Amino acid sequence: MPELPEAEVVARQIRNHLLGAQLNECLVGRADIVREGLSTLPWYQGALLDDVERYGKSVALGFRKAGELRYVVAELGMTGLLLFHATQTRHPQHVHVRMVFTGGRESELRYWNPRRFGRMSLFDRAGLDAYRARRFGVDPLTVPREEFIGLLQARRGRLKPLLMHQQVIAGIGNIYANEILFRARLHPNREVTKLRESTIAVLYDTMQLVLQEAIVCGGSSVKDFFAPDGTVGQYKSRHLVYGKEGQLCPNRCGRVIRRLQSERSSFFCPVCQTNRLSG
Ligand SMILES: [Zn+2]
Known about the structure:
The protein has two domains: 4-135, MutM-like, N-terminal (N-terminal domain of MutM-like DNA repair proteins), CATH 3.20.190; 145-268, Helicase, Ruva Protein, domain 3, CATH 1.10.8. It is an alpha+beta fold. The chain has helices at 4-18, 125-135, 145-153, 159-163, 174-183, 197-216, and strands spanning 22-28, 34-36, 48-55, 58-65, 68-75, 81-84, 95-102, 108-112, 120-124, 258-261, 265-268.
């Protein structure tokens, strides 16, 4: 948390409020928050915000100055937030970067993250491309169905860890993996090599549906996520299994949601999501 839908909500808000604005100051509170490119920080002064993109659970701000493009990439995975000036956090000491703008609908964008080390990077275009190639697999919202099917068919192992493997499919974390698998009626530990093509197609459709619906709802506010303008995401109220251990299955099958202790918590219904060998 945040995962893809939350990062997408963040990127859209920044785009709506700050695209075309000029960055007058970028104040980095602690040098160790910047993983790469700190020496290029002075370049950004006076640059215009030209582009805002989401990659996986990260948000990339593209700046233009004198015909050149450079980027600031903020990782949101687990605990990061990007906040406008008026949005307060309970722990303001974790605001590590402040970007002051003129000419936009907001005057400031702050990067908040209680985990301190290396969560922001400054890149030129080649650096950004290399970072993307290294860090992010296909995007679940834009990957074509055939490519997704081929991708899964080329893999082996358990299904849920694969859905969350950022270098294969970028942006899905524990919350959305659980919600997608329940709706697709797939056990988290299903062996990927045993999935039929038609089953992977159902998984693909379900993945897109869940993520799109979550974006429309402003994401899920779990563990203090909120959007740059302070809006709380509403998708949590639509969670069917995440955090619902011991509650009756929403499919009315009569069983309760169980929790598997694997590398991350998996919530599933033992009737609706059987761990059969193939299908
Ligand atoms: Zn059930």
